[in-house]
Design brief:
By secondary structure, the chain is an alpha+beta fold. 49% of the residues lie in helices and 8% in strands. It folds into 2 domains: 75 residues, Glutaredoxin; 121 residues, Glutathione S-transferase Yfyf (Class Pi), Chain A, domain 2, CATH 1.20.1050.10. The protein is built from 11 helices and 4 strands. The chain has a 4-stranded mixed sheet, with helices on one face. α1 packs antiparallel against α8 and α7 packs across α9. The chain starts with a strand and ends in a 17-residue tail after the last helix.
Length: 220
C-alpha cells in the first residue's frame, strides 16, 4: 500500500495540479476520489484531513497537507528527484517568482467559475475581464523564447499555472491570434504523458464549443 494518498476529484483543476506533480515525479500514490457532487468533501472523514473541505489534500505518512500549490512545493522538497526546479540560479529565481506571481497576481483574476457555474456574461464581469486579459498579456511576454516558462525545461512553474490557463484557453476561448505563445506552450504541455492522461480535458471538452462561455474570443 502506498504511503502517499491524494484526495482529489478528476474534474477539479486544483486537483490536477497536485496530480501532475506526483506523476512527473514518478511517485507511487493512491488516488482517492472525493465525490464533490455527493458532498463528500464536507463529511467529517474528509474534514479531518482538510478542515476547509476542499480538494486536493495530500497524506504522506504522518504529513497532512492541503492547498494545491503547497502540495507541489512540498513534493519538490520532499522528493527532489527528478528535479522540477531549475538548478541554474537565474532560472531557479524565475521559477520561484512565477509561482509567487501566480498566487498574488494571476490566480485572483480567474473568472472561469463565475462564467461556467455562475453563468455570468461579458457584460456582467466588466473590468474583471480586462484585468484577466492584462495578466494574460504579461504571461505571454514571460514565455519569451520558451518553450516553457523557465526556458527549455519543464518546471513546477508550468505545473502550477497549467490548470489556470486550461480554464482560460479551453474554457473561455482566449484568442490564439493574440496569445500565440501561451497557446503553443499549452499544446506542448498537453503532449506530456502526465497531462494527457488527465480526465479534466475530456470532462470540459464541451466548453470549447459553448459560445456562451467563450467570452474572451471577442473580448481582446
Amino acid at each position: 500500500m502506498s504511503r502517499i494518498k491524494l484526495y482529489a476529484h478528476p474534474f477539479s483543476n486544483n486537483s490536477m495540479r497536485a496530480q501532475l506533480s506526483l506523476d512527473e515525479k514518478g511517485l507511487d500514490y493512491e488516488y482517492v476520489t472525493v465525490d464533490l457532487f455527493k458532498g463528500q468533501h464536507k463529511q467529517p472523514e474528509f474534514l479531518a484531513i482538510n478542515p476547509r473541505g476542499q480538494v486536493p489534500a495530500l497524506v504522506d505518512g504522518d504529513v497532512r497537507l492541503y492547498e494545491s500549490v503547497a502540495i507541489v512545493e512540498y513534493l519538490e522538497v520532499r522528493y527532489p528527484d527528478p528535479p522540477l526546479i531549475p538548478g541554474e540560479p537565474k532560472r531557479m529565481a524565475t521559477c520561484l517568482r512565477l509561482i509567487a506571481e501566480f498566487n498574488q497576481k494571476l490566480d485572483p483574476t480567474n473568472i472561469f467559475g463565475s462564467v461556467k457555474f455562475g453563468r455570468k456574461s461579458r457584460a456582467d464581469l466588466g473590468e474583471r475581464v480586462d484585468k484577466l486579459l492584462a495578466e494574460c498579456r504579461v504571461w505571454e511576454g514571460y514565455l519569451g523564447a520558451g518553450p516553457y516558462f523557465t526556458g527549455e525545461t519543464y518546471s513546477i512553474a508550468d505545473i502550477v499555472v497549467l490548470p489556470f490557463f486550461g480554464t482560460i484557453i479551453d474554457g473561455l476561448g482566449l484568442p490564439q491570434a493574440d496569445y500565440p505563445r501561451l497557446h503553443a506552450w499549452y499544446e506542448l504541455c498537453k503532449s506530456r504523458p502526465s497531462v494527457a492522461k488527465q480526465p479534466w480535458f475530456e470532462a470540459f471538452a464541451g466548453d470549447k464549443q459553448n459560445p456562451r462561455q467563450r467570452i474572451l474570443a471577442a473580448a481582446s
